């Protein structure tokens, strides 16, 4: 059960004052309105009328008014008084709503302004629908008004405005914003107070009218409720005599209620509330004897109302709250005496001889030797001192003092002085910096001293602020409060240590925090040096983080990176420290935690003059670069080789040591700054390879010992210019070049999208398993960026050439003829027929004529070609037409190989030629 359950609510304990709301004031952005508001609420003296002011918007939603009952015949109340009723009339439902509006009597746009003011008043009335709250209008004017009756225009317009707003003349006020603003405000307050008095008088009459419909048989609770409301409204009206009278009547009605187990606690609680009000008003009327008599009467009437045996503990708790302060004071003084090696005071009405014997026993007991220190773990119950410790931030830099506050609050009836407050940490070296001690005499324990370091006043929150310098080795670690010890007494007498584990709190803290979070009550404003206890949270640990580095790290590079190149990343480090940055170290490379394949194919080095192989790491840690003077700049080139395409994240981490002075203590701080950069790796170029015949026709297979062409096409895919240093064709053993292999792209510069091509004439000797594909070899391209410095090594990209199917051909035919002909000039053509088999081949040859040519030679013939030998055939073609003309076609039939087709032979011999026009002269 929460320890605050039996405490009186705030709205019961405070002085009831008339509640007036002010609308139309912009206290944030309007200086005039702010001055008006300050005059109402700032520095209010005791002689000013008791009014509680609050600024609200004009369309504020006030609590809805329920439909009034015309009969209570079948109505059964659920309780005596609703829990939020007092707070509603103190803070939510105003007695008067004042509409402030800036309007001068000589306003040129009077009609529009009058209409706007009437609209605002109507909005307020709509939000107060069903309530008797008064409405008034205050016109804020720049000029001082003339005496009444002298300004005819003002009188006329005031009457028109009252008519438009449906107000009486007593509800319209003028507030000139002059040097005498406070005087006008006080006069306004008095007028507001009269309106509020009228409102509460009306409310009292309304409640009294309800009593006519009640009967004591079924409406006993309502009699108490209405009598309490009349008394409370009388307090709001500042009619304390009538309020006291009605509270006494309500108190008597409470004890007339029929009590049973289900409502016993409700009756006692309500009786306690009314008893408090009666006693308070008696003291206010300077009749303390009446208050004491009322309190005794209250105790006598209630102490026998125990209820069921199972709820006896609840009755005991309620009774203890009624006169708790007297008992607590006596118990507290006795405990302090025991701590000071003195005997406690005897209970009242004790026998004198028994008291004397007891005191002798106490004297003998305190003189015994033994442990004088008692440690009490207070976290598991509700102690008389509450404790909460809170670090001021979730983390502290190592060069900033660690600060935290310890809040203590005493719930005992008298001020109490402790001898020592100390805080323990998980690192015990910090304990020595967080101790508060006080030396005092025995008689001073219960004496309040504003100078006492550890003196607690009941109900007041005391804050102790500590600070210390964290150690450099604790960077990255948590500092945690492990205990808070509050020591009462001294080691010479008896010493009690109140111990809180962690950052404090007790058995009731979580429930108190939950109730505070769920509470909708308006918290009273406290002085600047005080805090709301329930709003304090415990923060028992903090993190020590490294000092903020005062260096800049810049990365310069030209993305994207190209596969296998030595990609240059220039790291520029500049010191902005005021002293020397010592032992500067650089860590650069692939950021850990990425795909394993990327790690295996990424290599980093500081030497950019040679290609790094697989033995080089992906990350270079702790590269020493010396010291940096203030303002000094350092550049370091890091070379990265990426073997595969993809996106990589690279880390550059710079650490150094710096001396710093914190709280007059010099420490060495390790600082670091890291930068990450994402670099995309792409192929530098795309290489296309194809096999073509001597006629540049695509080949899906080649023929043994027949020359063919290998064509390569290098297309630049880099956004940067590339220089092809050279290229090299490395043929396999099954391929031979027809002529000398040379590079035709040496020192060629390729821009983005440009391409360079090469052509190589090759021949494949006969092979046994050519159908399964024969390896061609490798194509090696040596290149580098055009912008790279001379020392950067050349990169060699190896392209594995595709395999090619090799077939044997029984007869190979090739033709010797000029590159072009002329009309009506002889064109000699020589055909070579070579037998590629081991058999004698019988060959039938025929020539099909063409319309563009006449020719001489054998049109049809039959011959025999021996194995490995060749025959020649000579023809003279005579062109008849100019242009690209079809030659007479040569048809060959091998009698031993019927499936040998002319279509295959046409790959080797030309079928067309370009014929030029004959020139004369």
UniProtKB/TrEMBL annotation:
InterPro entries, A to Z: TPC11, TRAPPC11_C
Entry's localization field: Golgi apparatus, cis-Golgi network
Transport among keywords: yes
One of the record's GO cellular component terms: Golgi apparatus
Domain named Trafficking protein particle complex subunit: residues: 263-323
Keywords, in A-Z order: ER-Golgi transport, Golgi apparatus, Transport
Record's keyword annotation contains Magnesium: no
Domain Trafficking protein particle complex subunit 11 C-terminal: from-to ranges: 834-892
Pfam families registered for this protein in UniProt: Foie-gras_1, Gryzun-like
Similarity comment: family membership: Belongs to the TRAPPC11 family.
Function: Involved in endoplasmic reticulum to Golgi apparatus trafficking at a very early stage.
Protein's name in the database: Trafficking protein particle complex subunit 11
């Amino acid at each position: 059960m929460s320890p605050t359950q039996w405490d009186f609510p705030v709205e019961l304990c405070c002085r009831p004052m008339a509640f007036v709301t002010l609308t139309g004031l912009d206290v944030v952005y309007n200086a005039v309105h702010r001055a008006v508001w300050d005059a109402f609420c700032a520095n209010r003296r005791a002689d000013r009328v008791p009014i509680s002011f609050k600024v609200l918007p004009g369309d504020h939603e006030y609590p809805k008014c329920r439909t009034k009952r015309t009969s209570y015949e079948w109505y059964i109340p659920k309780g005596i008084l609703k829990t939020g009723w007092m707070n509603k009339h103190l803070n939510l439902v105003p007695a008067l709503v004042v509409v402030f509006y800036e309007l001068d009597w000589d306003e040129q746009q009077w009609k529009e302004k009058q209409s706007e003011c009437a609209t605002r008043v109507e909005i307020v009335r709509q939000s107060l629908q069903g309530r008797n709250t008064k409405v008034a209008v205050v016109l804020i004017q720049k000029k001082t008004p003339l005496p009444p009756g002298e300004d005819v225009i003002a009188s006329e317009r005031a009457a028109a405005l009252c008519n438009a707003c449906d107000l009486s003349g007593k509800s319209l006020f003028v507030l000139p914003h002059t040097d005498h603003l406070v005087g006008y405000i006080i006069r306004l307050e008095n007028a507001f107070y009269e309106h509020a008095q009228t409102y509460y008088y009306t409310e009292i009459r309304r409640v009294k009218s309800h009593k006519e419909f009640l009967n004591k048989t079924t409406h006993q609770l309502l009699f108490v409720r209405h009598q309490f409301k009349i008394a409370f409204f009388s307090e709001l009206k500042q009619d304390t005599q009538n309020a006291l009278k009605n509270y006494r009547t309500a108190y008597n009605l409470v004890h007339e209620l029929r009590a049973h187990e289900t409502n016993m606690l409700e009756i006692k609680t309500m009786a306690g509330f009314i008893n408090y009000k009666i006693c308070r008003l008696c003291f206010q009327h300077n009749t303390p004897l009446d208050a004491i008599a009322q309190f005794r009467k209250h105790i006598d009437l209630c102490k026998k109302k125990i209820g069921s045996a199972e709820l006896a503990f609840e009755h005991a708790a309620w009774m203890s709250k009624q006169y708790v302060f007297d008992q607590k004071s006596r118990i507290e003084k006795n405990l302090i005496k025991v701590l000071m090696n003195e005997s406690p005071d005897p209970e009242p009405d004790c026998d004198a001889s028994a008291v004397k014997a007891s005191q002798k026993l106490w004297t003998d007991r305190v003189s015994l030797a033994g442990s004088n220190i008692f440690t009490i773990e207070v976290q598991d119950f509700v102690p008389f001192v509450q404790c909460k410790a809170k670090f001021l931030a979730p983390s502290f830099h190592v060069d900033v003092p660690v600060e935290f506050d310890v809040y203590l609050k005493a719930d005992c009836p008298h001020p109490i002085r402790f001898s020592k407050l100390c805080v323990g940490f998980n690192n015990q070296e910090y304990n020595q910096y967080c101790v508060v001690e006080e030396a005092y005499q025995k008689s001073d324990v219960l004496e309040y001293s504003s100078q006492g370091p550890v003196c607690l006043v009941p109900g007041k929150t005391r804050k102790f602020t500590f600070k210390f310098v964290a150690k450099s080795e604790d960077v990255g670690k948590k500092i945690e409060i492990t205990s808070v010890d509050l020591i009462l007494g001294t080691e010479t007498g008896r010493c009690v240590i109140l111990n809180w584990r962690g950052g404090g709190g007790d058995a009731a803290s979580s429930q108190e925090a939950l109730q505070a979070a769920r509470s909708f009550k308006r918290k009273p404003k406290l002085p600047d040096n005080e805090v709301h206890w329930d709003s304090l949270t415990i923060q028992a640990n903090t993190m020590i983080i490294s000092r903020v580095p005062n260096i800049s790290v810049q990365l310069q590079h030209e993305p994207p990176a190209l596969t296998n190149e030595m990609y240059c990343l220039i790291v520029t480090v500049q010191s902005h420290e005021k002293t020397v940055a010592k032992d500067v170290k650089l860590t650069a490379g692939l950021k850990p935690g990425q795909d394993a394949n990327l790690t295996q194919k990424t290599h980093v080095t500081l030497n950019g003059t040679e290609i790094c192989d697989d033995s080089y790491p992906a990350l270079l840690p702790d590269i020493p670069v010396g010291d940096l003077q203030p303002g000094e700049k350092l550049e370091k080139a890091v070379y990265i080789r990426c073997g595969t395409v993809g996106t990589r994240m690279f880390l550059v981490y710079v650490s150094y040591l710096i001396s710093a002075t914190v709280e007059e203590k010099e420490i060495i701080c390790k600082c670091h700054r890291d930068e990450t950069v994402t670099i995309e790796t792409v192929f530098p170029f795309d290489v296309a390879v194809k096999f073509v015949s001597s006629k540049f026709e695509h080949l899906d297979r080649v023929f043994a010992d027949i020359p063919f062409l290998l064509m390569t096409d290098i297309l630049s895919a880099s956004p940067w210019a590339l220089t092809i240093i050279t290229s090299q064709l490395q043929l396999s053993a099954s391929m031979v070049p027809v002529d000398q292999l040379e590079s035709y792209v040496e020192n060629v510069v390729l821009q983005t999208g440009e391409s360079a091509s090469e052509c190589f004439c090759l021949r494949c000797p006969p092979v046994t398993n050519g159908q399964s594909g024969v390896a061609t070899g490798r194509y090696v391209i040596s290149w580098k960026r055009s912008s790279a410095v001379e020392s950067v090594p050349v990169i060699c990209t190896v392209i594995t050439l595709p395999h090619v199917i090799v077939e044997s051909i029984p007869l190979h035919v090739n033709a010797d003829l000029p590159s072009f002909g002329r009309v009506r000039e002889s064109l000699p053509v020589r055909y070579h027929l070579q037998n590629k088999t081991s058999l004698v081949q019988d060959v039938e040859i025929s020539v099909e004529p063409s319309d563009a040519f006449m020719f001489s030679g054998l049109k049809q013939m039959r011959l025999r070609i021996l194995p490995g030998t060749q025959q020649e055939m000579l023809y003279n073609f005579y062109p008849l037409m100019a242009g690209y003309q079809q030659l007479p076609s040569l048809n060959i039939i091998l009698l031993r190989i019927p499936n040998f087709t002319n279509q295959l032979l046409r790959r080797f011999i030309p079928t067309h030629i370009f014929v030029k026009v004959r020139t004369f002269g």
